[in-house]
Automatic annotation (TrEMBL):
Residues 125-224 form the P-type ATPase A domain. It is an enzyme of class 7 (translocase). Its main location: membrane. This is P-type Zn(2+) transporter. Belongs to the cation transport ATPase (P-type) (TC 3.A.3) family. Type IB subfamily. Keywords: ATP-binding, Cell membrane, Membrane, Metal-binding, Nucleotide-binding, Translocase, Transmembrane, Transmembrane helix. Residues 622-644 are annotated as: Disordered. It holds the Pfam family Hydrolase. It catalyses: Zn(2+)(in) + ATP + H2O = Zn(2+)(out) + ADP + phosphate + H(+). The chain crosses the membrane at residues 18-37, 94-111, 240-258, 264-290, 576-595, 601-619. It comes from Aquamicrobium soli.
Length: 644
């Protein structure tokens, strides 16, 4: 049993801290003994003790690594420190081990800060909840809330579960999840997420997600995994370090053999430590992913972050991505003697069998008139529409392609009506009863308010080609595209056409990101270099499958995600440069005789800290242009490199 007072030392971080402090104190004692009192013996003893105190932990780590056949940096330092003692350089040995421990300790501390965004997320989860049991409010640990129970949330407190509002109204700040600074109004029927804050008003919420099964918990898990996942460049550096470390040992042995200068050889071991190199990319990635998470942008790992940093083309689907996805029914054009109400009713019966966004306003409009019967048989044809059977009749609703497939012909009146709807920039839904065209409905969908500024910003940061890929007709697609400043439109696409286009863009040498929502986008999303989902807070599938999930339903997060990825990539390159230049400079210094063991270790450890500090610049909260209300768009000043 460890005595209680020593128990904290079993924690490696605490042990390292105390060993470092003790070793530092011994060095100071030794220096005072020598320069204050001329006591050489006490000096040597103190330095030996200091080297032993700090070195034991380093040597222990070196041995642990060797047992898994890993040539660690600790091994280089251990050999150098023992060698220095061997040639009577007690001071050098003490200084090298002390500085290495000190650097490692500071490194661990600052690395923890780069994970700060995750800590913010963890803090967002409240620990207690007020549940209504037997009509009475009871305070419980949040973990003991049961599914389906009603949770009471008072003004100013955090919501402890995912759920549906059953009573009350409140403005809920969802910043912890979506990064959106503006609170959302919640009323009975709205969905709310654990970790969000009811800023005013009291809500009663029926719990639909508890404990580890909330969106917040999923985001935390994913950020953790993403920060652990190794990027390709990181794996490359790790492989490099595997042969680099033994190579340095061989180099040192060679230098010793040639120059007969053991001190030179030992100094080489110290200054060639790849410490800054090994940490250069992971520290940037952890910081970049954390910075993104703070804005409600979930980047699923270093690999995805590197890919996103390289994209130069974006493909977007229209319905639900560039547009609100809530079309309104603006035209009802009955044909061939059909009555307006009949046309709407038949169309609504058909669309009640689909959950395509186009069907919803039709169903809603007809529901205002009365009950909608459920069709007996439904056949949905992706990218075309659907055919249903009801009361012995066959209803078809969809686009021209559907009617060509069904061999239903258009008379002159139908052609004219269809052309009119298309000319007005609306999406037509043609309706036929038993093979006879009964009329045409015209729908129009609003572009999102965030779409135009987001497209402009993307071009500004170098996404030079932006293309709309849509299943809708060319005319309504072009009308929306023109409003948003998108000049490349591919319309009337089937899911496999979207996929083929992405492949074609890639064959053109483009690094393509695709953002979409529908099932018709799934194959294209899978083929894109980076797949992006928006409004992911409402969809667990999106959180799980997309490379980048934008929690908010806000297109302006798109340029922010790209900007963060680019800034992280730049940051990684800067860090690599800092690390390599330091090693090269130190090696030159050793051969010119300007750098010795202790100073070499000092400079090396400083380079490690510089690399970490550089990565931490990524975490800075960006300025919000235009003051208060603006969305958090990364300002160049915050994410661009300060040094070349
Ligand atoms: N339930 C439906 N009712 C009527 N028409 C439909 C239905 N589903 C699809 N269609 C027709 O097929 C077309 C393509 O649909 P699809 O779902 O592939 O793309 P979309 O959602 O319209 O556009 P985007 O690809 O931009 O999301 C629609 O524009 C419409 O003409
Ligand atoms: Zn879509």
């Amino acid at each position: 049993m460890t005595p209680p007072i020593l128990a904290p030392l079993q924690n490696p971080a605490t042990r390292r801290k105390w060993l470092t402090l003790t070793s530092g104190a011994l060095i100071v004692l030794g220096l005072i003994a020598l320069y204050g009192f001329g006591l050489r013996g006490l000096w040597a003893g103190a330095m030996l003790a200091a080297a032993f105190v700090a070195g034991s932990d380093i040597a222990w780590r070196a041995v642990q690594a060797l047992r898994i056949r890993h040539f660690s940096i600790e091994l280089l330092v251990t050999v150098a420190a023992i060698g220095a003692l061997f040639i009577g350089e007690y001071w050098e040995s003490a200084a090298v081990t002390f500085l290495f421990s000190l650097g490692a300790w500071l490194e661990a501390r600052t690395l923890r800060q780069t994970r700060g965004a995750l800590a913010d997320l963890l803090k967002a989860a409240p620990e207690t909840a007020t549940v209504i049991r037997d009509g009475q409010p009871v305070d419980l640990p949040a973990a003991s809330v049961q599914l389906g129970e009603t949770v009471l949330v008072r003004a100013g407190s955090r919501i402890p579960v995912d759920g549906e509002v059953t009573e009350g109204n409140a403005a809920v700040s969802e910043a912890a999840i979506t990064g959106e600074p503006i609170p959302a109004e919640k009323a009975p029927g709205s969905h709310v997420h654990a970790g969000t804050i009811a800023e005013n008003g009291v809500l009663r919420i029926r719990a639909t997600g508890i404990g580890s099964d909330t969106t917040l918990a999923r985001i935390i898990r994913r950020v953790e995994e993403a920060q652990e996942e190794r990027a390709p460049s990181q794996r490359m550096i790790e492989r490099f370090a595997q042969w680099y470390t033994p190579a340095i040992m061989v180099l040192a042995l060679g230098a010793w053999a040639v120059t007969q200068d053991l001190r030179l050889a030992l100094t080489l071991l110290v200054v060639a430590c790849p410490g800054a190199l090994v940490i250069s990319t992971p520290v940037s990635i952890v910081a970049g992913i954390g910075r993104a998470a703070r804005s409600g942008i979930l980047i699923k790992g270093g690999q995805h972050l590197e890919n996103a940093g390289r994209i130069d083309m974006l493909a977007l689907d229209k319905t639900g991505t560039l547009t609100e996805g809530k079309p309104s029914l603006v035209e009802v054009l009955p044909l061939a003697g059909t009555k307006r109400a009949e046309l709407l009713h038949w169309a609504a019966i058909a669309e009640s069998g689909s959950d395509h966004p186009l069907g919803r306003p039709i169903v809603a409009a007809d529901r205002a008139e009365g009950e909608i019967p459920t069709p007996e048989a439904v056949e949905e044809l992706a990218g075309m529409g659907l055919v249903v059977r009801h009361a012995g009749r066959e209803i078809a609703a969809g686009n021209r392609r559907l009617f060509d497939t069904l061999d239903i012909t258009f008379d002159a009146a139908a052609e004219a009506a269809l052309d009119g709807v298309l000319e007005r920039g609306r999406t037509p839904i043609i309706v036929a009863l038993d093979g006879q065209i009964a009329g045409i409905l015209g729908l129009s969908d609003q572009p999102r308010a965030s779409a135009a500024p987001a497209m402009a910003r993307l071009r500004e940061i170098g996404v030079s080609r932006i293309a709309m890929l849509t299943g809708d007709q060319p005319q309504p697609a072009r009308a929306i595209a023109a409003e948003l400043g998108i000049d490349e439109v591919h319309a009337g696409l089937m899911p496999e056409d979207k996929l083929a286009l992405i492949r074609a863009f890639q064959a053109d040498g483009r690094h393509v990101a695709m953002i979409g929502d529908g099932i018709n986008d799934a194959p294209a999303l899978a083929a894109a270099d980076t797949s992006i989902a928006m409004g992911a807070a409402g969809s667990d599938v999106a959180i799980e499958t997309a490379d980048i999930a934008l929690m908010a339903d806000d297109l302006e997060k798109l340029p922010e995600a790209v900007a963060i990825s680019r800034a992280t990539l730049r940051n990684m390159r800067q860090n690599l440069a800092i690390a390599l230049l330091t090693v090269v400079g130190l090696l030159a210094g050793v051969f010119s005789g300007d750098v010795h063991m202790a100073s070499g270790m000092l400079i090396h450890q400083l380079s490690v800290l510089v690399v970490i500090a550089n990565a931490m610049r990524l975490l800075r909260t960006p300025r919000r242009p235009g003051g208060g209300k603006g969305r958090p768009v990364p300002a160049d000043g915050a994410l661009a490199p300060a040094t070349a």
